[in-house]
Amino acid sequence: MRAGFSRRKVLRGIMGGAAISVGLPLLDCFLNSNGTALADGQALPVGFVSWFQGLGFAPGYWEPKTLGSGFTFGHTMRALAPMRDHINLYSGMKVYLDGHAAGAHSSGPTTILQGGLGDESLPSIDQIIADHIGTRTRFRSLEVSCEGSQEGYSRRSATAINPSEPSPLALYARIFGPDFKDPNAADFTPDPAIMLRRSVLSMVSEQRGDFVKHMGAADKARMDEYFTSLRDLEKRLALELEKPAPMAACTVPEKFGEQATPGLIIDDAQTNHKLFTALLAHAFACGQTQVASVNFGGSGSNLRRQGSQQTYHMYTHEESIDPALGYQPNVEWFSNQCATALCSFAQAFQGIKEGNGTLLDRVLIMHSTDSGYARTHSTENIPLLTIGNAGGRVKTGNHISAKGDTVARYGLTIMQALGVPIGTWGTESNRTSKTFTEVLA
User: Cα dist. 421→50, 154, 270, 413 in Å?
Assistant: First the structure.
């Protein structure tokens, strides 16, 4: 590695007396001559994202009709088609209750993400993985919620639950404040409004100029692309702070009933998701974290359309099945919104170039949900999938059927792919030592 060029390099500045920093992406000068490893010979760090949505997908309409490669997504997952070759899709798996009371929307995520029922002290899979790959980054893990609440599925134990960040502005402030680890600490609380209006990028412009002088043409171009994308993100976040222009025809209606949480409007959730996606992609690309947890909609999702009080959850139970279509049309619409969000998340990681590959190539995104069929609260045939190949450790592009197997088999495979030294995982009938060896490289 050339003198002065370090993978840990960040650009630092001062804004209003508070220090700020901007991490750098994986430039060619940080990599070996083939662009496949760090310049010192170490493998590129792997990353993990747990991405959760509520209410699953309608059975019979998401499963491909063929196994192996070259499969075609079912109707409710069609939005994921652009990422098919980066996906492993699993069908047929279930949650074993072992006599425990079935939680309408909790048994699924508890077993998928913690390995089983009956022991809430179990850590979630993202935290097990963070203990293995997240100890040398600034943030051991980052947790976000797109629906305006702190609800999430990341926990170290029954009492040590990691609250999700509901505000993209607050996450922006955390990422750009150096050494800022505790969001509740009183000694340094960066103001995202001030930071956005002045732009942290302008505070490091001189240092950036000195840094790029000694770079090759490809790295200079990548730095320009990187800073342009960050500035675009700042502008999009800044719009959230602006007061809308006055409109003469606008009047305030009389208050009616109880007001739903604004974050539960699906357009708001999608906006938050896009902003969180860009921030998390930046954090991974710049080595700020290697582990994240995203909550899009939550268990028993109460997302709703603008102007409607009917929620996604209510539709799953109350909407009739269209006899011509064979499924619930409004439920289908919400399901497709979830699939679209997940696809855009993966595409954002795929869009960041690193050497001869992309950020997605060294990350594994784990999708999970709460139901196999939300209409009946079934936890049979729960739809599950991963995106990315974890630095070449996972072979992708396959539909795999494991009818009757515990969903814990899915989590065990993921942990082994990411190098966690674990041979058996789960509780009672969900305990397994069986992985999907066909996807492990």
Answer: 19, 20, 36, 11
Could you give the CA distance from residue 53 to residue 409 in angstroms, rounded to a whole number?
Answer: 20
Q: Both 415 and 268 in a single domain? A: yes
The mean-pLDDT minimum among 9-13, 46-50, 148-152, 161-165 falls in: 9-13
**Do residue 102 and residue 217 come from a single domain?**
no
Q: Mean pLDDT over residues 43-64, rounded? A: 96
How many domains does the chain divide into?
2
> What tens digit of pLDDT does each residue of 287-346 get?
999 999 999 999 999 999 999 999 999 999 999 999 999 999 999 999 999 999 999 999
Task: Identify whether 191 is part of a domain.
Answer: no
pLDDT digits (tens, 9 = 90+) for 345-354: 999 999 999 9
- Residue 396 within any structural domain of the chain: yes
Per-residue pLDDT band for 386 (boundaries 50, 70, 90) equals: very high
| 82 and 94 inside one domain | yes
The reply to whether 387 and 270 lie within a common domain is: yes
Same domain? 97 vs 4: no
**Tokens at residue 415, please?**
């942990």
The domain in which residue 59 lies consists of: 46-141+263-439
pLDDT at site 302: 93
Q: What confidence score (pLDDT) does residue 127 get?
A: 97
86 half-sphere exposure, CB direction, 13 A CA radius:
26
Residues 307 and 419 in one domain: yes
**Are residues 219 and 283 part of one domain?**
no
